[in-house]
Design brief:
97 residues, alpha+beta, 3-stranded antiparallel β-sheet, 3 strands, flat
């Protein structure tokens, strides 16, 4: 669920300067040709930083009712844990691999 613009702006401005500068670059998940390009772009963005919010920044709220975690094992005897919400409490269950 998308959260309103005010909460999104508050979230953005509460992040550190480095995180905000990287967000302003607007290239997340795109191919990076060379780490030097990132460093040069980052330095330029830090120099331009203000207390403005990246226009595409949006905060989402996720409400989980069930979450599963697992730890891999070479022999495939994975440890699997299921947490599920029941009556406003998290119930933890061990699952078969």
């Amino acid at each position: 669920m998308r959260v309103g613009k005010e909460q999104s702006a508050k979230d953005f401005l509460e992040r550190g300067e480095v995180a905000r500068a990287i967000a302003f670059l607007g290239k997340q998940s795109k191919v990076l040709p060379d780490s030097k390009v990132l460093e040069e772009s980052f330095i330029k963005q830090i120099e331009r930083m203000t207390n403005t919010v990246a226009p595409y920044w949006c905060l989402y709220k996720v409400t989980a009712s069930e979450v599963e975690f697992w730890q891999g094992d070479r022999e495939r005897k994975h440890i699997r844990l299921l947490y599920r919400m029941e009556n406003n409490e998290w119930i933890k269950e061990l699952l078969w691999p």
